[in-house]
Amino acid sequence: MGESRDRLTREQRSRNMSKIRGKNTKPELLVRSLLHAKGYRYRLHGQSGAAKLPGRPDLVFAGRRKVIFVNGCFWHFHDCKVGQHAPAANAEFWEAKRTRTRERDALQREQLQAAGWQVLTVWECQLKDTPLLEDRLTAFLEA
Questions:
Q1: Given this model, what pLDDT does residue 89 score?
Q2: Using CA atoms, how far apart are residues 59 and 127, in angstroms rounded to an integer?
Q3: What percentage of the chain reaches a pLDDT higher than 70?
Q4: Cβ-contact 57, 45 below 8 angstroms
Q5: Lower CB count within 10 Å: N or C terminus of the chain?
Q6: 1: which residues sit within 8 A by CB, 6+ positions away?
Q7: Where is this region: Disordered (predicted)?
């Protein structure tokens, strides 16, 4: 059964990948909801006035000069179990793609910090412990 799942045609894989969103994901909506309920207001996806911020952060707190990225563990190659899962099909492609994503994320973080922004990355796996997540978000925004 698992073998047939790994043997998708190019068209099937393309259809599956086209359904994956980069904005307004469930993890991002959860973080936004938690912060909004606590009274925080923010801009979305790196639009700060006319200038675009490097990496298009998911949440921008311009007055505080702080940004938050909400990253999927698999896509951004997190150190957790999900992030370290290596697809069997087309393994070299996925390894290279995810490595480039990790490198791009690091560069964008450096660019933001050099421009005077503080950056927090919230990983998808961290959403399971809501009280801890709320504490972490509040500590970052109030520091």
A1: 81
A2: 16
A3: 80
A4: yes
A5: N
A6: none
A7: 1-23
Please list, in sequence order, all residues whose beta carbon lies within 8 angstroms of the beta carbon of residue 73, skipping any fewer than 6 positions away: 80, 82, 83, 123, 124, 125
Cβ atoms of 44 and 89 within 8 Å: the answer is no
Domains and CATH numbers, the chain: 23-142 (3.40.960.10)
> What does the alpha-carbon distance between residue 46 and residue 60 come to, in Å, rounded to a whole number?
6
- More confident site: 136 or 72: 136
Tokens 């560069």 map to which residue? 107
Secondary structure string (H, E, C) spanning the chain: CHHHHHCCCHHHHHHHHHCCCCCCCHHHHHHHHHHHHCCCCCEECCEECCEECCCCCCEEEHHHCEEEEEECCCCCCCCCCCCCCCCCCCHHHHHHHHHHHHHHHHHHHHHHHHCCCEEEEEEHHHHHCHHHHHHHHHHHHHC
Q: Output the pTM of the full model.
A: 0.81
How far apart are alpha carbons 102 and 109 in whole angstroms?
11
What are the distances in angstroms from CA 13 to CA 5, 42, 65, 91, 128?
10, 35, 39, 14, 29
